[in-house]
What does this fold into?
Amino acid sequence: TRTSHGAGRPYYITTAIAYPNGAPHIGHAYEYISADALARFKRLDGFDVRFLTGTDVHGQKMQQTAEKEGIPTAELAKRNSDRFQALQDRLGSSYERFIRTSDDDHKRASEVIWKRMADTGDIYLDTYSGWYDVRDETFYAETDTTVNEAGERVASDNGHVLTWTEEQTYFFRLSAYQDRLLELYESHPEFIGPDVRRNEVVSFVKGGLTDLSVSRTTFDWGVPVPGHPDHVMYVWVDALTNYLTGVGFPDDAATFERYWPADLHVIGKDIIRFHCVYWPAFLMSAGIELPKRVFAHGFLFNKGEKMSKSLGNVVDPESLLDEFGLDQLRYFLLREVPYGQDGSYSAESMTARVNADLANEFGNLAQRTLSMIGKYFDGAVPTPGAYTDADSEILDATSTLLPRVRDNFDVQAIHLGLEALWSVLAQTNRYISAQEPWKLAKTDLERTGTVLYVCAEVVRVVALLAQPVMPTSCNALLDLLAVGDDREFTTVDDRLTPGTQLPKPTVIFPRRDA
Ligand code: ME8
It folds into this structure.
């Protein structure tokens, strides 16, 4: 047996936990798909992966939405969390746990981290007065607000309408962590990706930190503050703690020691401050190791426009799945949008990619190769003869794919990993056109077999390495090549065995009509 790259080492990856105050949208689906592809890649590369996702059920917005709907908040949380989980399942998400912050073990984890921060002396009681964005559950300093045309006080950065809050709350001594945070970003530049986000965070922290209000008394939908049940924790305190709960903190020491610190928190760019400033400060205060990396993906827009309920252009992931298919959606989002940047979705761009990359570049190569093996070799893998330079060029390019794609995935450059695979597919399509095995078959069956063997090898390796992105289709392709059950990346160099009987080929990536 061979040792895999991961050699069974633990790898802990998380997504943000969404507010279930409405239905999930395509932005949520994007985060789940991308994190799932990263988790699957690590699993196939031999890591012992733990992938955590879930919902963030507390906070004022949840309570307000439930009031509007006239149902208990717990009922809203359960109903909508179920919808988020159903979406994950439909997306093929390979999570180990779907946490809801209403889970009992999460309450306990939140109490323990709170007590530890309090024991350090970082929590004190004071009066908070200022602006609050209920939608994002964020406090705003007066200087970061303006008044809109309707005379409402709004956040300068996103225009959300703010409410004045004035109450006695507990504060976290965030101001004490400025130097330690700057030192963290300096000594661990990999802590925040992509680079542009790190620069944002560094300049924010350099601008000075004020203490953070970390409890609320004007509503009760949250985790009660230990010893002070008239306060509930500020929703972000308990929300961030989900990453600890998900690996057994504080009671399951074995699991916690195995998987913590997290290798990667996948989040969207709007919540970078919570993950790269507040979260490491809370952990430093509580004496808990810091996560190794936070990666912020960009936002998805509908034809370049921001999705919003008022514009009526919110894309429902279910309808996209119905229309395009799961692997098509997964591929499109991960290939079209450079991971870490904003991206745009449109039916036209999706159809174009599905046809060009999947139906033509990949599907057609597989289809031609397999049908010629059927026609000229009775469906048995042909025996390659001596390789020409043209053959070797393709085989060599193929054999460098795993390390290249791994390097890309290691820095979450998912789109570049896919680009590397598709460049070899393009090269192979040029090769098959130049070699013309359909003509060779009339004069030189051995040479025909060699060319088809090379093409089949490319299909095998690309299908193997694209599994994290398109699990179902790639496994179907590997089935068509009679590849055995072990489909981990350790098998990348196990070439197809000549003489192996292949099943009757079927179309894996159908064309779409524009
Ligand atoms: O922020 N495109 O929850 P949330 C891409 N509960 N990603 C998007 C997006 C879009 N249009 N809209 C949202 C929260 N997201 C908190 C997280 S974590 C301890 C607590 C992403 O439901 C967003 O960036 O508002 C975030 O990563 C995730 O969806 C959940 O957003």
User: Anything to note?
Assistant: The pocket of ME8 is lined by residues 16-19, 27-28, 30-31, 56, 239-240, 242, 267-268, 270-271, 299-300, 307 (CB under 6 Å).
